[in-house]
Amino acid sequence: MILRAALLFVSVIALGSCGSGDGSEALSPEMQVTASTMSATPARRLFGHVDAPSDGRTRVYGRISRGCIQGAEELPETGPTWQAMRLSRNRNYGHPELLDYLQELSRFAATLPGWDGLYIGDMAQPRGGPMLTGHASHQSGLDADIWMLPATDLSLTEAERESLSSISTRRARGAYVGENWTEAHWQLLREAASDPRVARIFVFPGAKVWMCDNETGDRSYLRQIRPWYGHHYHFHVRLSCPQGSPDCVDQAPPPPGDGCDEAREWQRNILNPPLPDPDPNRPEPVRGEIMLSDLPAQCTRVLLSSP
Hints:
Blueprint: H1 2-16, H2 43-48, E1 59-63, E2 66-70, E3 73-74, E4 78-79, E5 82-84, E6 93-94, H3 96-109, E7 118-120, E8 143-147, H4 158-163, E9 170-171, E10 176-177, H5 183-194, E11 198-203, H6 205-214, E12 225-227, E13 234-239, H7 260-271, H8 298-304
Parallel strand pairs: 5-7, 11-12
Antiparallel strand pairs: 1-2, 3-6, 4-5, 8-13, 9-10, 11-13
Helix pairs in contact: 6-7
């Protein structure tokens, strides 16, 4: 049975390598994955060339940066209040809770002035796992990138979804919000972070500081909003482990409090960068490829499962 599944997987890899459409290279004949070379093949090549979810009940295995998802569901490419972007990447998959969350948030977005809904970027690959390009996270079907560009046209063609770009909402390298930032962005982020399913939302430091300075009501949602590098063209939502996935590993919760002091420290470090490390001989951290053996054992079964 294992050999049969492995051979089936090899066929899936071969088909998927014909055109991933995300700008990454296809597997050349001498790099075709076989059952005997799976253990020596980077996990991003194994998961990145599979184009359909696995069968079985939906379950999340492992962490957001070392995990996978069984039985993922595909977010429809277009809905009444959303559109999935960059369809060629085939990254609009996730846990049903994530799909429900995104659709619910998109309905709220459609009530904001100037917004008809959401443009939704990367979620996860069909079986999660490391991606061929970009993202250390997004592996367990619980992460999604939401564009800062207000969705005003929900009839974009596939080609338009590839060429359209989002907007930057920062200035001063992320220390402050820029001219594209609006109060509607604040309302959207507040709504996004107030859902009890949310573990974290990542956004550039200036946006968090702006919200800290302007919020006069309930501040509890600010704890979930965390400053992080980039995240000015989109914000990143991460859900907590859902029920029914006992092998899902949650990230440690954010520290108590609203996190505003931490965001202001990020802001200060952008405006006045700290001195460089005084030890020029300090070795760089080793960042090797993630291999299948680095993921939970269940991810091998997910990878080899029939679509």
